[in-house]
Amino acid sequence: EVGCGAGEILCQLSLALKDSVFYGYEISPNAFELCKSKESKRVHFEFGDILKRNVYYDVLLCLDVFEHVQDYMGFVSSLKSKGKFKIFHIPLDISVSSILFGSMINARKNIGHLHYFTPATAIATLEDCGYSIVDSFYTTGFSRPSRSRKLRSIIARLPRKILFSISQDFMVKILGGCSLIVLVE
Length: 185
Fold this sequence. Notes:
Blueprint: H1 8-16, E1 22-26, H2 29-36, E2 43-47, E3 57-63, H3 72-78, E4 83-91, H4 96-101, H5 103-110, H6 119-128, E5 133-140, H7 151-166, H8 168-174, E6 178-184
Parallel strand pairs: 1-2, 3-4
Antiparallel strand pairs: 4-6, 5-6
Helix pairs in contact: 7-8
Protein backbone atom coordinates (compact mmCIF):
# COMPACT_ATOMS: atom_id res chain seq x y z
CA GLU A 1 0.00 0.00 0.00
CA VAL A 2 1.33 3.38 -1.04
CA GLY A 3 0.78 5.99 1.66
CA CYS A 4 -0.44 3.45 4.21
CA GLY A 5 -0.98 5.98 6.99
CA ALA A 6 -1.63 4.27 10.30
CA GLY A 7 -1.57 0.84 8.58
CA GLU A 8 -5.03 -0.31 9.55
CA ILE A 9 -6.13 -1.29 6.03
CA LEU A 10 -3.26 -3.76 5.67
CA CYS A 11 -3.88 -5.15 9.15
CA GLN A 12 -7.53 -5.80 8.27
CA LEU A 13 -6.61 -7.33 4.90
CA SER A 14 -4.15 -9.67 6.64
CA LEU A 15 -7.01 -11.02 8.77
CA ALA A 16 -9.08 -11.82 5.68
CA LEU A 17 -6.30 -13.03 3.36
CA LYS A 18 -4.36 -15.49 5.49
CA ASP A 19 -1.99 -16.69 2.75
CA SER A 20 -0.76 -13.24 1.73
CA VAL A 21 2.04 -10.95 2.89
CA PHE A 22 1.49 -7.18 2.97
CA TYR A 23 3.83 -4.21 2.67
CA GLY A 24 3.00 -0.60 3.41
CA TYR A 25 5.04 2.46 2.45
CA GLU A 26 4.71 5.76 4.29
CA ILE A 27 6.62 9.03 3.92
CA SER A 28 5.14 10.84 6.94
CA PRO A 29 7.24 10.25 10.09
CA ASN A 30 4.17 10.62 12.33
CA ALA A 31 2.05 8.16 10.35
CA PHE A 32 4.97 5.74 10.09
CA GLU A 33 5.32 5.74 13.88
CA LEU A 34 1.68 4.64 14.12
CA CYS A 35 1.86 1.89 11.51
CA LYS A 36 5.24 0.52 12.64
CA SER A 37 3.69 -0.49 15.96
CA LYS A 38 1.19 -2.69 14.06
CA GLU A 39 3.75 -4.85 12.24
CA SER A 40 3.31 -8.60 12.34
CA LYS A 41 4.72 -11.69 10.68
CA ARG A 42 2.74 -10.95 7.49
CA VAL A 43 2.38 -7.15 7.66
CA HIS A 44 5.49 -5.02 7.13
CA PHE A 45 5.88 -1.25 6.98
CA GLU A 46 8.68 0.76 5.43
CA PHE A 47 9.48 4.41 5.88
CA GLY A 48 10.13 6.00 2.51
CA ASP A 49 9.02 6.46 -1.06
CA ILE A 50 8.00 3.28 -2.91
CA LEU A 51 9.10 4.94 -6.16
CA LYS A 52 12.70 4.83 -4.91
CA ARG A 53 12.53 1.10 -4.18
CA ASN A 54 13.16 -1.79 -6.54
CA VAL A 55 9.92 -3.65 -5.75
CA TYR A 56 7.07 -5.23 -7.70
CA TYR A 57 3.78 -6.53 -6.29
CA ASP A 58 0.77 -8.46 -7.56
CA VAL A 59 -1.58 -5.70 -6.38
CA LEU A 60 -0.72 -2.18 -5.36
CA LEU A 61 -3.14 -0.10 -3.28
CA CYS A 62 -3.16 3.67 -3.61
CA LEU A 63 -6.04 4.82 -1.43
CA ASP A 64 -6.73 8.55 -1.05
CA VAL A 65 -3.17 9.48 -1.99
CA PHE A 66 -2.56 11.11 -5.36
CA GLU A 67 -4.89 14.07 -4.79
CA HIS A 68 -2.27 15.19 -2.24
CA VAL A 69 0.70 14.95 -4.63
CA GLN A 70 1.82 18.07 -6.49
CA ASP A 71 2.79 16.21 -9.71
CA TYR A 72 -0.04 13.70 -9.44
CA MET A 73 0.12 12.49 -13.05
CA GLY A 74 3.87 11.87 -12.82
CA PHE A 75 3.29 10.03 -9.54
CA VAL A 76 0.44 7.88 -10.91
CA SER A 77 2.45 7.09 -14.07
CA SER A 78 5.48 6.09 -11.98
CA LEU A 79 3.43 3.52 -10.06
CA LYS A 80 2.96 1.46 -13.25
CA SER A 81 6.32 -0.24 -12.74
CA LYS A 82 5.51 -1.27 -9.15
CA GLY A 83 2.79 -3.85 -9.69
CA LYS A 84 0.59 -5.74 -12.13
CA PHE A 85 -2.73 -4.42 -10.82
CA LYS A 86 -3.42 -1.19 -8.96
CA ILE A 87 -6.44 -0.23 -6.91
CA PHE A 88 -6.99 3.50 -6.60
CA HIS A 89 -9.47 5.09 -4.20
CA ILE A 90 -10.13 8.64 -5.41
CA PRO A 91 -12.20 11.22 -3.51
CA LEU A 92 -14.70 12.90 -5.82
CA ASP A 93 -14.55 16.45 -4.52
CA ILE A 94 -16.24 18.16 -7.47
CA SER A 95 -20.04 18.27 -7.47
CA VAL A 96 -22.67 20.97 -7.88
CA SER A 97 -23.03 21.04 -4.10
CA SER A 98 -19.27 21.37 -3.50
CA ILE A 99 -19.10 24.29 -5.92
CA LEU A 100 -22.09 26.05 -4.34
CA PHE A 101 -20.91 25.55 -0.75
CA GLY A 102 -17.15 25.91 -1.32
CA SER A 103 -16.22 22.54 0.16
CA MET A 104 -13.28 22.04 -2.23
CA ILE A 105 -11.32 24.81 -0.52
CA ASN A 106 -12.15 23.17 2.82
CA ALA A 107 -10.71 19.89 1.49
CA ARG A 108 -7.58 21.82 0.53
CA LYS A 109 -7.22 23.54 3.91
CA ASN A 110 -8.30 20.70 6.21
CA ILE A 111 -7.24 17.51 4.42
CA GLY A 112 -4.54 18.71 2.04
CA HIS A 113 -6.19 17.96 -1.30
CA LEU A 114 -4.35 19.76 -4.10
CA HIS A 115 -6.38 18.26 -6.96
CA TYR A 116 -10.09 17.63 -7.35
CA PHE A 117 -11.94 15.04 -9.41
CA THR A 118 -15.26 14.00 -10.86
CA PRO A 119 -15.76 10.36 -11.89
CA ALA A 120 -14.94 11.26 -15.51
CA THR A 121 -11.76 13.21 -14.69
CA ALA A 122 -10.56 10.49 -12.30
CA ILE A 123 -10.94 7.82 -14.99
CA ALA A 124 -9.42 10.10 -17.65
CA THR A 125 -6.40 10.75 -15.41
CA LEU A 126 -5.73 7.03 -15.03
CA GLU A 127 -6.17 6.43 -18.77
CA ASP A 128 -3.92 9.41 -19.60
CA CYS A 129 -1.27 7.81 -17.39
CA GLY A 130 -1.40 4.65 -19.52
CA TYR A 131 -3.65 2.40 -17.45
CA SER A 132 -6.43 0.14 -18.67
CA ILE A 133 -9.56 0.33 -16.53
CA VAL A 134 -10.69 -3.12 -15.37
CA ASP A 135 -13.54 -2.08 -13.07
CA SER A 136 -14.79 0.77 -10.92
CA PHE A 137 -17.51 1.56 -8.39
CA TYR A 138 -18.48 4.26 -5.90
CA THR A 139 -17.86 4.16 -2.18
CA THR A 140 -20.30 6.12 -0.07
CA GLY A 141 -19.42 7.91 3.14
CA PHE A 142 -23.06 8.83 3.73
CA SER A 143 -24.25 5.21 4.03
CA ARG A 144 -22.23 4.61 7.21
CA PRO A 145 -23.31 5.88 10.62
CA SER A 146 -22.46 9.57 10.79
CA ARG A 147 -19.69 10.91 12.98
CA SER A 148 -20.30 14.40 11.68
CA ARG A 149 -22.25 16.80 13.80
CA LYS A 150 -22.42 19.42 11.06
CA LEU A 151 -26.05 20.19 10.31
CA ARG A 152 -25.41 20.30 6.54
CA SER A 153 -23.95 16.75 6.61
CA ILE A 154 -26.84 15.41 8.66
CA ILE A 155 -29.43 17.04 6.37
CA ALA A 156 -27.69 15.80 3.18
CA ARG A 157 -27.65 12.13 4.22
CA LEU A 158 -31.26 11.29 3.36
CA PRO A 159 -31.37 13.01 -0.07
CA ARG A 160 -28.03 11.38 -0.95
CA LYS A 161 -29.33 7.93 0.00
CA ILE A 162 -32.57 8.37 -1.94
CA LEU A 163 -30.96 9.87 -5.04
CA PHE A 164 -28.14 7.29 -5.00
CA SER A 165 -30.73 4.48 -5.07
CA ILE A 166 -32.30 6.09 -8.17
CA SER A 167 -29.18 7.18 -10.09
CA GLN A 168 -25.69 6.86 -8.65
CA ASP A 169 -24.00 8.96 -11.35
CA PHE A 170 -26.53 11.78 -11.06
CA MET A 171 -26.29 11.87 -7.25
CA VAL A 172 -22.47 11.99 -7.38
CA LYS A 173 -22.58 14.91 -9.84
CA ILE A 174 -25.18 16.88 -7.87
CA LEU A 175 -24.66 16.17 -4.15
CA GLY A 176 -21.24 14.50 -3.99
CA GLY A 177 -20.14 12.65 -0.87
CA CYS A 178 -18.60 9.68 -2.71
CA SER A 179 -15.25 8.38 -3.78
CA LEU A 180 -14.36 6.09 -6.67
CA ILE A 181 -12.57 2.75 -6.42
CA VAL A 182 -10.82 1.89 -9.69
CA LEU A 183 -9.02 -1.35 -10.54
CA VAL A 184 -6.47 -0.83 -13.32
CA GLU A 185 -3.89 -2.87 -15.15
